[in-house]
Specification:
alpha/beta, three-stranded mixed sheet, UbiD family decarboxylase/polyprenyl P-hydroxybenzoate/phenylacrylic acid decarboxylase-like protein, 4-hydroxy-3-polyprenylbenzoate decarboxylase activity
């Protein structure tokens, strides 16, 4: 399935981009505060190449390392990072869908036809390295030495915008790799050894940080959103904290529907059963499962 040479690390991918003229080196001094973001945004909108800033600085102090930006600025580069051409991406999607929900095997010929897909899946398994640069014992890293940008004027400080953050639930052992969560979060640099992470309430890292475990109910809700199917949440009306309001805003932005379970007094219900029946009918109607069940307001 792979059409391009393997890229064992980021350096190999960058070298490949340079070889095909899809990497532009910027040898002029560029300020990490606002200026670099403006250049990145221009390259992104123009469908331009990846950028390597060799002389990044902030406040007149030059960074100790270069900065690579706009790496995923085009669909073709995203496909290349996966080892494919843009035309091959639909095939990759079909393979991933088949691996997620494989159809029953129908005979020997069908089994043999799936062997290339199985080979690709086996090659995609992670490999555990016992000696790698990332595992070298060093002094505690100084986060302020990372050339982190301050993208926008109202940002509170420099942000590491694409860190892969590894978390595991409290009380688990380091070798329980299956319990690990890898997520990408915006991380604001506060000092040499301090970061602030922007947790999203619906993400695995936030659940781990809050001491919460996934449930079948929350998993089902996540599937509804991912598949762009109706999701209706009956959220209590009070008391609501800022956390509740932000979570409801996030769900709404993702396509969910917040339905406060309040009585429809225009129906003049006689008892609690009538109130709950109307609320349940409104929820079912919002799921678009069939003909309307709730008594609508007639004006």
């Amino acid at each position: 399935m792979r059409q391009l040479p393997p890229f064992p690390d980021l350096r190999a991918f960058l070298h490949w981009l340079e070889g095909r003229g899809d990497m532009l080196g910027v040898d002029q001094p560029v300020e990490l505060r606002h200026e670099m973001t403006a250049l990145q945004l221009g390259a992104l909108r123009a469908g331009g190449p990846a950028l390597r800033f060799d002389h990044a600085h902030t406040g007149g102090t030059r960074a100790r390392m270069p900065v690579v930006a706009n790496l995923f600025g085009t669909r073709a580069r995203v496909a290349a990072g996966l080892g494919m051409t843009l035309a091959d991406l639909p095939m990759l999607g079909e393979v991933l869908a088949a691996l997620r929900a494989p159809a029953p095997v129908e005979g020997v010929r069908d089994a043999l036809s799936r062997w290339p897909m199985l080979q690709a899946a086996l090659r995609a398994r992670p490999r555990i390295c016992r000696s790698a640069p990332v595992q070298e014992a060093r002094d505690i890293a100084d986060l302020t030495q990372i050339p982190a940008q301050t993208p926008w004027p109202l940002d509170a400080g420099p942000l590491i915008t694409w860190p892969v953050v590894i978390t595991r639930p409290h009380g688990t052992q380091a070798d329980q790799i299956a319990r690990y969560n890898l997520g990408v979060y915006r991380a604001q640099v506060l000092g040499p050894d301090r970061l602030i992470l922007r947790w999203l309430a619906h993400r695995g890292g936030a659940a781990i940080a809050s001491g919460l475990d996934d449930t079948l109910l929350t998993r089902a809700a996540g599937v509804q959103l991912k598949e762009r199917r109706p999701l209706v949440l009956l959220a209590r009306e009070a008391p609501l904290t800022l956390a509740h309001l932000r979570n409801m805003t996030a769900v709404t932005e993702m396509g969910g529907i917040i339905l406060p379970p309040v009585p429809a007094f225009y129906l003049k219900p006689d008892n609690v059963q009538a109130i709950t029946a109307q609320i349940a009918a409104r929820a079912v109607d919002l799921l678009r499962l069939g003909a309307a069940q709730a008594n609508a307001w007639q004006g």
